[in-house]
C-alpha cells in the first residue's frame, strides 16, 4: 500500500469481525511499532497482545465502565449537545464508540501499550500510530483508546500481570480486527484553518480546502 493512502485513510475502525488476525500480521504490526522514534531512542515500551477470549471477557466490563464514566464526565456536555442539535457526525462517533464498548470481547485482538520514564508522555504515540498504519496496510482496522489507562489502570495491570513497581504506564489499548465497514478518507478541519505562518494567527497565505492526496 502506498504510504499516503495509509496516512489519509487510517480511520478509527471500531466495528470489526471476530475473525482472528494471523500471527504474521501481528508480528508485522509489532515490528513496525518498534521502528518508531522515542526520546533518546530509549525504547521504553512494552506491548501486550491480548487475544485470549477469557481475558477479553474479563476486561470487557472494565472497558464498559470506563466508557460509562467518560460519557458521564468528560463528554457529558458535548454529547448532550450533539443530541440536541442532531449533529450527525458526532452522533455517528458516539454510536461507533458505544459499539466498541458493547462489543469489547468480540474484538479479536487488543494491543495494550505501556511505557515508562517518559515525562512528556510523547515517546509512545509514534509507535502506536506505526502499529496502526501497519495494520491498515494489512487490511486490519484499529482504534486507539485511552480510557482503560485513565479509569481502570490498576484493574488492567492486575489482569495482565503487569508489574506495578517498575513505573509502567498504560498509554493505549488498541482494538484490532477485520473491518465490517469500508475504509474512507479521514475528514478533518482543513490545513489553512489550523496552521499559521511564523506567528500565531498569521495566515499561511494559501488555502488547502481539499485533501492533497487524491486516492
Ligand atoms: C488519544 C486518543 C484517545 C482515543 N480514545 C478513544 C476511546 O476511548 N474510545 C474510542 O472509541 N475512540 C477513541 N479514540 C479514537 C478517536 O475518537 C478517533 O481517532 C477520532 O474520532 C477520529 O476518527 P476518524 O479517524 O475515524 O475520523 C481516541 C483517539 C485518540 C488519538
Can I get a quick summary?
The chain is an alpha+beta fold.
Q: How are the strands ordered across the major sheet?
A: 1-2-4-3
Radius of gyration, taken over Cα atoms and rounded to an integer in Å: 18 Å
User: What is the typical, i.e. mean, pLDDT?
Assistant: 96
Q: What's the tally of helices?
A: 9
The proportion of residues in beta strands is 5-15%
Overall geometric form:
globular
CATH topology of the largest domain: NADH Oxidase
Number of extended strands: 4
How does this model look, in words?
- A four-stranded antiparallel beta sheet has the order 1-2-4-3.
- The chain is 43% helix and 13% strand.
- The model has no long low-confidence stretch (mean pLDDT 96).
- The protein has 215 residues and is of the alpha+beta class.
- The protein has two domains: 3-181, NADH Oxidase; 185-215, no CATH class.
- It is globular, with a radius of gyration of 18 Å.
- It has nine helices and four strands.
- Bound molecules: flavin mononucleotide (FMN).
- Flavin mononucleotide binds next to helix 5 and strand 3.
Amino acid at each position: 500500500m502506498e504510504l499516503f493512502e495509509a496516512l489519509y485513510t487510517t480511520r478509527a475502525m471500531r466495528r470489526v469481525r471476530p475473525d482472528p488476525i494471523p500471527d504474521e500480521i501481528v508480528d508485522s504490526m509489532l515490528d513496525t511499532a518498534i521502528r518508531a522514534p522515542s526520546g533518546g531512542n530509549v525504547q521504553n515500551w512494552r506491548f501486550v497482545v491480548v487475544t485470549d477470549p477469557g481475558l477479553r471477557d474479563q476486561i470487557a466490563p472494565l472497558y464498559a465502565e470506563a466508557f460509562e464514566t467518560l460519557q458521564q464526565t468528560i463528554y457529558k456536555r458535548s454529547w448532550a449537545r450533539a443530541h440536541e442539535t442532531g449533529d450527525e457526525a458526532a452522533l455517528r462517533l458516539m454510536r461507533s464508540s458505544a459499539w466498541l464498548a458493547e462489543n469489547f470481547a468480540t474484538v479479536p485482538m487488543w494491543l495494550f501499550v505501556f511505557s515508562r520514564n517518559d515525562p512528556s508522555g510523547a515517546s509512545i504515540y509514534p509507535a502506536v500510530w506505526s502499529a496502526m498504519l501497519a495494520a491498515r496496510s494489512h487490511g486490519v482496522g484499529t482504534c486507539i483508546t485511552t480510557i482503560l489507562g485513565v479509569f481502570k489502570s490498576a484493574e488492567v495491570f492486575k489482569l495482565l500481570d503487569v508489574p506495578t513497581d517498575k513505573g509502567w504506564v498504560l498509554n493505549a489499548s488498541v482494538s484490532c480486527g477485520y473491518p465490517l465497514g469500508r475504509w474512507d478518507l479521514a475528514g478533518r478541519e482543513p490545513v489553512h484553518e489550523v496552521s499559521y505562518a511564523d506567528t500565531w494567527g498569521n495566515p499561511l497565505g494559501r488555502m488547502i480546502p481539499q485533501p492533497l492526496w487524491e486516492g
